Amino acid sequence: MGNILLFIQHVDGKVLKGTLSALAAARELKVPWQAEQIVGVALGSGAQVAAKEMLGYGLTSVRYSENGLFEKYRAEPYARAIALAAKELSATSVVALASSSGKDALPRVAVLLEAAQASDVIGVNPDGSLRRPMYAGNIIAEVELLAPTRVVTVRSTAFSPATLEVGGSECSELGLAGDPELHEQPRFGEIVGYEMSKADRPELSDAAVVVSGGRALGSAENFEKVVYPLADSLGAAIGASRAAVDSGYAPNDWQVGQTGKVVAPNLYISVGISGAIQHLAGMKDSKVIVAINKDPDAPIFEVADYGLVADLFTVAPELTEKLRGLRS
Amino acid sequence: MKILVPVKRVPDWQLKLKLLPDGSGIQTEGIKWILNTFDEIAVEEAIRLKEKGGVSEIVLVSIGPDDVRARLEYALAMGADSAILIKHDGPADSDLASRAIAEVFKKGDYAMVLLGKQAIDSDASQTAQLVAARLNLPQACFASKVVVDGGAVTVTREVDGGLETIKVPLPCVISTDLRLNEPRYAALPNLMKAKKKPFEVITLESLGVSSDVKVKVRKLSTPSARKAGRKVASVQELVDVLQNEAKVL
Ligand SMILES: Cc1cc2nc3c(=O)[nH]c(=O)nc-3n(C[C@H](O)[C@H](O)[C@H](O)COP(=O)(O)OP(=O)(O)OC[C@H]3O[C@@H](n4cnc5c(N)ncnc54)[C@H](O)[C@@H]3O)c2cc1C
Known about the structure:
- The complex is a heterodimer of chains A (328) and B (249).
- Chain A has 328 residues and is an alpha/beta fold.
- Chain A folds into 2 domains: 187 residues, HUPs (Rossmann fold, 3-Layer(aba) Sandwich); 124 residues, TPP-binding domain (Rossmann fold, 3-Layer(aba) Sandwich).
- Helix content of chain A is 27%, strand content 27%.
- A 7-stranded parallel beta sheet of chain A has the order 7-11-6-1-4-5-12, sandwiched between helices. A 5-stranded parallel beta sheet of chain A has the order 15-14-16-17-18. In chain A, strands 8-9-10 form a 3-stranded antiparallel beta sheet.
- In chain A, helix 2 links the parallel strand 4 and strand 5.
- In chain A, helix 3 packs across helix 4.
- The longest helix of chain B is centred in the first third of the chain and has 16 residues.
- In chain B, 28% of the residues lie in helices and 32% in strands.
- Chain B has 249 residues and is α/β, with parallel strands linked by helices.
- In chain B, a hairpin with a 2-residue loop joins strand 8 and strand 9.
- In chain B, helix 3 crosses helix 4.
- The chains are: A alpha/beta (328), B alpha/beta (249).
- Chains A and B meet through helix 3, helix 4, strand 7, strand 10 and strand 13 of A and helix 3, helix 4, strand 7, strand 8 and strand 9 of B.
- Strand 18 of chain A pairs parallel with strand 13 of chain B.
- Bound molecules: flavin-adenine dinucleotide.
- Flavin-adenine dinucleotide sits at the interface of chains A and B.
- Flavin-adenine dinucleotide (FAD) sits at the interface of chains A and B.
């Protein structure tokens, strides 16, 4: 019934952990979708290294392209190249991590392949139907893709990263001649610039510990004074509620929730966050949840394993001190 | 320049959803509908662009049953100029929506499609990209800032790790993120006036679009709720339980 193509997302050749989660989902799909092999494609600088690495994860055949068209991620050329690779590698389905670029490009791939798409998949049923969250995670839908070609984006928190497995050895450059429109890139505009947050802490999406701050912090200064040291005492990534982001206490890409990042660390500590349903959508699958809030009736306590009803400005610094003490 | 703003109505997110007993859908009887939060932001942005000059007309389009009219009228009251309701009572997925929107786009002389980055019911985040691909247009998704300058638009996008700014030529498709703007409320007198704005009801057939869907929703269920844990009395107790009970330190 055709192969499954994995879109290998990487940064300068370093494969994202989420790509391995997407691969785990692809492995689950293999039997019910009667796929013969899992194949892959990597694009951009470092693509060759990333593609090679994936041969160690059971992929039988991989394509890469480091063509200038792919130097910086853009939806249009990426989608075209992924569709091209699918055709070349006889893939009838495409699986990718639901990162911002996965979400951005994969629907375009679906149109190019006339495929049906399911976004943000969190489970695979034995009959090949898929489970995905709707309504901010309040409802889980069981969906069936009705087209013979299929596209799936995968929520990384729902699948443990795939482990090493004997694969193939076929790694070669993706030929681009098959799609003349790929070279019409000027039609799709250009990158003007980036404003990336400093990456001196673990990546939020796959950190083992996350400390998040909410509106209660009251200012960017307080956020920095209270949340940063607590996070650093644990080697944690920092998250935030939408209210904290909207008020300018934390950068946009720290937002956790329905419309931000979905995280599922071993330990999630929320500080001064009420626990609105849209926030819970992004963290309620964390293994252990700690909530610090001065309101004993805050909804966050309904999902927290351990709740501390207290003023955060007193207890968060105290916690930071104690954790530092443990470390040293 | 004309802007096409596709909108979807969704159940009010502040209400508790109830499933039908057989799990085939949610109970819709008597529920309150709202304009999808992200689409409302798209409507607002279109109005702001028009207020700045250069936009001649804002056309809304929605797919759904008759009573979607009320939501379209709300968006008209915010300041859109006219609305098209594609009357359809059956199931619809992002793919069907994108095919219909693409046909509407082809029939008008639009310079931009502006819509929400996701609908807060299905949370699929596909329609904008599908429309762009069907029309082979550039896309700028997850926009937190939109600046139109002559024949091009500069869009700041919310991406993993920060912000990315791209400049795309018109016509293009833009999907809106939460921080793009804060939508205005439609004033009551405008709600009355909105009823007099041009409102066209058409069908999928008249657009030559089949009503087939590619994604079949078989069954809905509620996720198993997480059990509430317990309260600890002090920071010391918290550290102790994290260390000895949860073993996460
Ligand atoms: C379509 C849509 C999408 C959304 N998406 C998201 C999303 O992705 N992520 C998200 O987070 N939100 C999202 N929201 C917003 C969400 O509904 C809430 O408004 C938001 O999460 C509230 O943030 P908060 O908990 O920081 O603020 P609040 O709700 O104001 O809570 C502050 C909390 O701090 C406590 N507090 C105050 N002072 C102290 C103190 N000194 N010590 C201890 N505790 C204190 C209070 O008791 C309160 O519980 C979305 C909303 C909509 C409509």
